[in-house]
Amino acid sequence: MTSSTALATLLDARETSQPTMPITIAPIPAAFLNRVRREDLDDLGQPVKHVEAQGGEPCRDVLRRAFPGEQLILASFTPFTKPGPYHEYGPVFVLAEESGEQVLRDRLPAAGSPTDYLREQFAVRAYSEDEKIVDAALIEAGDFDATIERFFRSNDVAFLHVRYPAYGCFSCRIDRG
After folding, report:
1. Mean residue pLDDT across the chain
2. Were 70 and a residue from 11, 12, 41, 53 both cysteine, which residue would form a disulfide, CB within 3.0 to 4.6 Å?
3. For residue 4, is it within any domain?
4. What whole-number distance in Å separates Cα of residue 49 and Cα of residue 77?
5. 3 pLDDT exceeds 90?
6. Is residue 54 part of a domain?
7. 4 has pLDDT over 50
8. With pLDDT > 70 as the criterion, what percentage of the chain qualifies?
């Protein structure tokens, strides 16, 4: 079984709770992916690190966990576009080469088990249009959709960031659909 067949089987077997409101998972910017893959430089202008996956690394570009042996890039990334005190950088893994995998961006990534992109616990941060933090919560996977809906009920919230709590790695940006 190829890794893409294994991935399709895994995704088909999962039912992921979804918020009732439409959402969009923002793709990682193409300019960042091109720079780290072609120029070996991250968002801070530092050389990226090429690694062979042990298996389970969160691949930000395809919103899934890496399979053992996959070639990855570890790089500093900022999801922010404006200067300010919340403009932070953090480590992300991306596949070393474009995979052509279909990434569903109109639904939340799988969450709650050790093999899911988001595991049992993660941080959700709500930001305003000018990229200032409005609210934040450390949540369990079962509270994901309710937290998104609660944050998006506020007109002050423009988008959400999801982060892994232990290492602080950026997971994804969620926009209103």
Report:
1. 90
2. 53
3. no
4. 13
5. no
6. yes
7. no
8. 90
- What is the C-alpha separation between 177 and 169, in angstroms, rounded? 24
Selection from 127, 122, 150 nearest residue 78 by Cα: 127
d(CA 162, CA 66): 18
59 lies in some domain: yes
5 Cβ partners below 8 Å, 6+ apart? none
User: What's the domain range around 35?
Assistant: 23-176
Tokens of 165: 């709590």
- State the Cα–Cα distance between residues 109 and 50, nearest whole angstrom: 25
Joined tokens for residue 85: 């005190």
Residues of 131-149 as b/e, b for ≥16 C-beta within 10 angstroms? beeeebeebebebbbebbe
Q: Are 135 and 159 in contact (CB under 8 A)?
A: no
First to last CA, the chain: 35
Residue 8 inside a domain? The answer is no
Instruction: Give the residue, 19 or 44, on which the prediction is more confident.
Output: 44
CB atoms within 10 A of CB 161: 23
Place of tokens 């091109």: 34
Backbone angles phi, psi at 4, to 5 degrees: -70, -35
pLDDT of the residue at 10: 45
What is the per-residue pLDDT across 56-83, written as a single tens digit (0 to 9) for each? 999 999 999 999 999 999 999 999 999 9
Q: Is the pLDDT of residue 1 over 50?
A: no
Instruction: Please provide residue 5's backbone torsions phi and psi, each rounded to the nearest 5 degrees.
Output: -70, -40
